[in-house]
Amino acid sequence: MTASFKGFFKDVKLQCSRCGKEINENDEMTVAIRMPNKRRMPVGPLDRVLSKFAHEILCTKCK
User: Fold this and answer.
1) Global pTM?
2) In 44-57, which positions are buried (b, 16+ CB within 10 angstroms) versus exposed (e)?
3) What is the pLDDT along the chain (63 residues), one digit of tens a residue?
4) Closest Cα to residue 50, out of 8, 26, 16, 18?
5) Which of 6, 37, 57, 62 has its CB 3.0 to 4.6 Å from that of 18, i.e. a possible disulfide?
6) Which helix (H) or strand (E) segment is 56 a member of?
7) How many C-beta atoms surround the C-beta of residue 16 within 10 A?
């Protein structure tokens, strides 16, 4: 059973949508996301939520 949850708790690496730079802890970024309805409200760690729901993630250089 623990093998099925192995990938669930890994950190998700966020990348800039334009230049591909990896966004690390304490880096500033600009994110484009649509306001979800009540049934699809994203809940969880921010990096995982942004990787699923963000339309665009930009680093400070590209914004």
Assistant:
1) 0.72
2) eeeebbbeeebeeb
3) 445 555 555 678 899 999 999 999 899 999 999 888 888 888 888 888 898 899 999 999 998
4) 16
5) 62
6) strand 56-59
7) 20
Q: What Rg do the C-alpha atoms of the chain give, in angstroms?
A: 13
> Which one-letter DSSP state was computed for residue 9?
T
DSSP 3-state of 51: helix
Three-class SS of residue 49? helix
Residue 61's identity, in one-letter code, is: K
Q: CA-to-CA distance for 57 and 19, rounded, in angstroms?
A: 10
Q: Rounded to 5 degrees, what angle do the CA atoms 46, 42, 36 make?
A: 125
- Token pair, residue 39, equals 């049934």
